[in-house]
Amino acid sequence: MLERNAGRKFNELRPINITNNFLKTTTTSVLVEFGNTKVICAATLDDKPVPFLKNTGRGWLTAEYSMLPASTQTRTARESTRGKVGGRTHEIQRLIGRSLRAVCDLNSFGEKTIYVDCDVIQADGGTRTASITGGFIALAELFKKMKTEEIVKEIPLKDYVSAISVGIIENQILLDLEYAEDSKADVDMNFVMTGSGKFIEVQGTAEQVPFDKKQMDEMVFLAAQGIENLISLQKKIVGNLI
Amino acid sequence: MLERNAGRKFNELRPINITNNFLKTTTTSVLVEFGNTKVICAATLDDKPVPFLKNTGRGWLTAEYSMLPASTQTRTARESTRGKVGGRTHEIQRLIGRSLRAVCDLNSFGEKTIYVDCDVIQADGGTRTASITGGFIALAELFKKMKTEEIVKEIPLKDYVSAISVGIIENQILLDLEYAEDSKADVDMNFVMTGSGKFIEVQGTAEQVPFDKKQMDEMVFLAAQGIENLISLQKKIVGNLI
Amino acid sequence: MLERNAGRKFNELRPINITNNFLKTTTTSVLVEFGNTKVICAATLDDKPVPFLKNTGRGWLTAEYSMLPASTQTRTARESTRGKVGGRTHEIQRLIGRSLRAVCDLNSFGEKTIYVDCDVIQADGGTRTASITGGFIALAELFKKMKTEEIVKEIPLKDYVSAISVGIIENQILLDLEYAEDSKADVDMNFVMTGSGKFIEVQGTAEQVPFDKKQMDEMVFLAAQGIENLISLQKKIVGNLI
Amino acid sequence: MLERNAGRKFNELRPINITNNFLKTTTTSVLVEFGNTKVICAATLDDKPVPFLKNTGRGWLTAEYSMLPASTQTRTARESTRGKVGGRTHEIQRLIGRSLRAVCDLNSFGEKTIYVDCDVIQADGGTRTASITGGFIALAELFKKMKTEEIVKEIPLKDYVSAISVGIIENQILLDLEYAEDSKADVDMNFVMTGSGKFIEVQGTAEQVPFDKKQMDEMVFLAAQGIENLISLQKKIVGNLI
Amino acid sequence: MLERNAGRKFNELRPINITNNFLKTTTTSVLVEFGNTKVICAATLDDKPVPFLKNTGRGWLTAEYSMLPASTQTRTARESTRGKVGGRTHEIQRLIGRSLRAVCDLNSFGEKTIYVDCDVIQADGGTRTASITGGFIALAELFKKMKTEEIVKEIPLKDYVSAISVGIIENQILLDLEYAEDSKADVDMNFVMTGSGKFIEVQGTAEQVPFDKKQMDEMVFLAAQGIENLISLQKKIVGNLI
Amino acid sequence: MLERNAGRKFNELRPINITNNFLKTTTTSVLVEFGNTKVICAATLDDKPVPFLKNTGRGWLTAEYSMLPASTQTRTARESTRGKVGGRTHEIQRLIGRSLRAVCDLNSFGEKTIYVDCDVIQADGGTRTASITGGFIALAELFKKMKTEEIVKEIPLKDYVSAISVGIIENQILLDLEYAEDSKADVDMNFVMTGSGKFIEVQGTAEQVPFDKKQMDEMVFLAAQGIENLISLQKKIVGNLI
User: Which residues contact C211 (CB under 8 A, 6 or more apart)?
Assistant: First the structure.
């Protein structure tokens, strides 16, 4: 039996901390911590449409993700300096965007664009799942503010959404991998699920050893439990909106 | 009951055609056709290592994916002209690369780099699954040639690998979506599986309507059948290598 | 006397094959083969003007050219990955564009843009001449379709256009060089000519040994013969349009 | 007489808070707060030389500066997404780099590169002065660690360094401008000074109204006082190193 | 006492030559020479607004600066070939732009953009100060022409502006450094001042040895004298405009 | 009969002025003037090989071409600002490079790179032909210097090389087009020829009206005369080297 840091059980989340209204500059911003992983999530409304929706009357939500150079133990080169966004970043920010769009009504606020920025301050595994979980809160707060300001009539959310990772290390299935675990996992699987327990995204990768159906079922089971806990937490912070 | 083009059943693949040695210029190249989707897959060996593996003694496999501008009904702008590779392309070529690396022994041929190029000539849904399926064949042919030339002692493959998509349209689960189906699907799920029936990649996305565990199980079941057929086909072409 | 592959005479074209309506996705696409050189040419109409012709009432034709990485014996690095279009590509696509624009009436279809995409599947010398020759056919087919759809009243073509290369190897003048010849040629000259036998573009380069007027005259003579054959072929495919 | 927020006097700094060892990932990182301006400064040692110092035996220090999109009241577009580092960022990171290099002995640790990353979490004026002041602390901590690890024999610092801004609004000179002041200032002047009270950088800009020698002298006077305070603070945190 | 080239005194400018109407292509262009430093400055009016001032009714002035590859003793790589504008160039062109904008009324000519191009033909120190000094003349000439053409009613200049450098070498303060001096200076300071003797920009950098208040005062004194001479020269060329 | 500016005859060059040693910074630089067209050509030796010739023992010559923004009557946007070299620039600098390489022995000076920079100060037609003609002189001067410094034993030139344009306007053939002529020409043809009267490059483009063999012959005749004059001029400046 693998021992986890801080005596964590195989099906246990790391300590989750969420600080709402983290920044004074932006009205809706959240510091989300999954153990030592820390991400600042902020939601902003931009009055301009994205180019491909011009003259359609529809809005959009776009997510951007980035890691501070000092967020990792070996310094991560800055993508602005390299002049291009890398493949991993593209993959993650597309995942965050799809996950949040899946629970929004994008037709309710006209040709505007919502930006959800997820900036990783400290990375210890699970930055994409923390980003989705925290990004939802920033988004919900933005919608609440938009309702107050009468930009929308109702809060345009169809459900809550959270995300968690599950992995397999030496044949053992573990919830919410931290970096030291993630780096030796044979399988890494990310789940994005709604408040009503349905799947929005399922992304499993066998880096080393392929997995079978039984293992997948167990991973699904663990993930569903973890996400239930995260969504309870979200409800405490943003209230019952749906 | 949804009707599919050409009277196809819900659990039926489109006609699959594979033309080995498609190009005279490159020794290992394949034209793979999933119905009207046509992809040229080619595998090339480059004697130079990728920068991050310099002086490690290890090799690498990298995949690149691109669509001809005329491969889609509305012309697709060329990424070379736009000056950068888009997020979707990044996502797909990373998926192809991970899928093929998962069945290779990258330590067997020194500090060299294998390129698997997947160029979509005609796109009608399933270009990424066709790319993985055809890319494996080009790769296997390259390894056979490398063995003949004594660059490797044994063919460095641990298993076969194929990929297929499954989707949900109006609550009905369908195998191997073509474009007209894909564009109205509520859920789109891609499976990458080995010859021994295990999962390498599972990527499901609920574009419109979240899905539940029962639906996921049914999608897994359909995908496994489809992939079994594709792997039989691969074996006919490249022979029993593993 | 130099011997050519397949017993070809000094003034003989390689076998020319043209497959009209090659792709199902795009209405006007052509596979053109000059021996082992294979290029997919497609013509597309875009309703938006190019920026520099906005509010002038005039249309434009722009050509793009690219080689598949696997089209050459040594893999060609992808320009999208390198982040910029190289000088040779720029030079060729500008040549194709000028050649086709020279026979069009760009004032007849309003502020629209025609894209002629030339994608080299297999490269064995003469890719630019094959692109112009095949590009004309795709363009003519697009104009026929635009006439049917009443976007233009008359087919806006002033003449046919084809292109061919001539070279000098060891003092011997040869028509339509294939790659093995091209790579050892002292002089390489490309001609673009009309159905009425006039010049649109003449581009001669002495890579190794400068040439004199007498040699230029002989090259002109050979080229004119080759182009006459190509234009007969074009007429068979697109019909008598002018 | 202009009234400042929180009853601050014209010659008073905002509350300065410095949290040493802010991140667990990086050994030397600092959160520096000048009022509501918050910057994470981190110093990292990279074993590779910068290209232009290869084979010279000399080291280098390079600074990078960036603002989180949500750090400003109107969202700041991400430079990685735009594909290039803007002029203002270039200007600031060059200033930080020059300021820190001016107090270092770059010949003492071989052909290595020190990165000082300054990431603005919340921007309320004075981000460049906070970056220099906090960057020095991160750098000093890195040097202490390098001494412990015997990479350097002595701490290669010649002096302390801090920075502060002074501005003129309606003819009144103010120390340490916050954003609301900065945006209406006629003159904005940044000073970088050493522990021994000398100038390293002086950068004054009359955005609206040119200034005279008497005003410059008063600004110098105010800045020197402010910097003295900042350097006392630095000494408390990193100790007496020089 | 340091000896300067050509017996120049510590407080003496190099020979200054200004050739108005240098180019036939552009109506307002100037060749400015500070000793061996030669810069072509040209001012052009563009009818389009800069994007961020669209629909504000205001105009803008933007400066661009570049060095010919052959302008320096070691060839300078071309920024167009490298694909990006470097930090030093950004810094200089922002300085030129701010300096010239500080004396203009940008509200007087509508939503237009003025480009001031400064191209260094030969670099021997002081290229940025020559650019500002010559750029002002090109700008004044452009405004005179705009008045003649009734685009503005009055010449929209609030003052003259010139720039000069001062440096410290071996404790000696010198005016208008040439390259051989600049490269061994401990301190390099650039001043931008108006015809009425006020400061627009002050930028001092201690590359090697920090400087004190007394040295700064002496540098200010020298700079003010130098600038007075430059502004007399400007008045002779463009006339009394203000 | 068309009248040309300054009473020039159809077969007459514009006044050609060549100022050798134009810049003090670079040892080999030339200002070449074809009428109002002014280009600074400079040749520089770089000790590093171009990447593709590393470890081959061979040298290379590369040409770069650029226009000052103010060199044209409508300001030309700077390619460094746009972030990429345009197609026309690529085409021209490749032509200059090929033309000069054709008369050099690149195997005589080891793995070094020669840069020939052609910077257009004032553009009035014929910038590419002036660049080749002047670039040859800068190159010859560089080789003379390399011989003096014993980097080469003999001057590695096989022949002289110059270039000139010929055009057709309203059926009349004219030598050395200036901009006003070029912009209304039906045909524009550039010739690069050697001192021994042979062709290195022939590039003819029918922008508007295709041309026939008789016209081409007349253009060749005119060009050969023009080039003879240019080469006499080159011999006067660089001496008899071959």
Answer: C168, C186, C187, C204, F198, F199
Are the Cβ atoms of A210 and B203 closer than 8 angstroms? no
Nearest CA in chain A to B197: A212
Q: In this complex, is the C-beta atom of A75 within 8 Å of any C-beta atom belonging to chain D?
A: yes
Instruction: Put the strands of the sheet holding B187-194 in their side by side order.
Output: A172-175, A161-169, A187-194, A199-206, B199-206, B187-194, B161-169, B172-175
- Judge contact between C191 and C227, C-beta under 8 A: yes
Q: By the 8 A CB rule, do F32 and F41 touch?
A: yes
Given a contact cutoff of 8 angstroms between Cβ atoms, the answer to whether C210 and C39 are in contact is no
Q: Choose, out of F5, F20, F25, the residue to mutate when testing the contact with E (most E CBs < 10 Å).
A: F25
Q: For chain B, say whether C121 makes contact (Cβ under 8 Å).
A: yes
Question: How far, rounded to the nearest angstrom, does the alpha carbon of residue F11 sit from its chain's CA centroid?
Answer: 19
Partners of C141 in the β-ladder: none
Inter-chain contact F200–C210, Cβ cutoff 8 Å?
Answer: yes
- For testing contact with chain F, the best of C50, C65, C91, C188 (most F CBs within 10 A): C91
Identify which of A108, A131, A119, A110 has the alpha carbon closest to the alpha carbon of residue A201: A131
Report long-range pairs for D216-219 (Cβ below 8 Å, ≥24 apart). D216/D189, D216/E199, D216/E202, D216/E220, D218/D173, D219/D166, D219/D168, D219/D173, D219/D187, D219/D189, D219/D191
- Decide if B138 contacts B42 (C-beta within 8 A): yes
Taking the C-alpha atoms of residue F98 and residue C91, their distance in angstroms, rounded to an integer, is 13
Residue D75 has pLDDT above 80, yes or no: yes
The answer to whether E160 and E235 have CB atoms below 8 angstroms apart is yes
pLDDT confidence tier of residue E83, bands split at 50, 70 and 90:
confident
**Assigned token pair, D58:** 């000399």
Among the listed residues A23, E108, F114, the one whose alpha carbon sits nearest the alpha carbon of residue D120: A23
DSSP state of E75: P
Residue whose pair of structure tokens reads 């066709």 in the numeric block: B130
- CA–CA separation, C223 vs C225, rounded Å? 5
Cβ contact, residue pair E205, D98, below 8 Å: yes
3-class SS of residue F188: strand
| Token duo for residue E149 | 């053409």
Please tell me which of the candidates A85, A194, A206 has its beta carbon nearest to residue B102. Answer: A206
Structure tokens, D230 = 């900042």
pTM, whole model, 2 decimals? 0.94
Question: Contact D90/E93, CB-based, under 8 Å?
Answer: no
Contact A108, A153 (CB under 8 A): yes
**Contact predicate C70/B26, CB 8 Å:** yes
Q: CA nearest C83 in B: which residue?
A: B83
The single residue listed with the structure tokens 């490249």 is B238
Q: What backbone phi and psi angles, to 5 degrees, belong to C96?
A: -60, -45
The torsion angles phi and psi of D216, rounded to 5 degrees, stand at -65, -45
Say yes or no for a CB contact (<8 Å) between C78 and B80: yes
pLDDT tens-digit series, residues A92-101: 999 999 999 9
Interface of C with F in 16-35 (CB under 8 A): none
CB atoms inside a 10 Å sphere around CB C7:
7
Cα(F137)–Cα(F233) distance, integer angstroms:
10
pLDDT digits (tens, 9 = 90+) for F71-91: 999 999 999 988 889 999 999
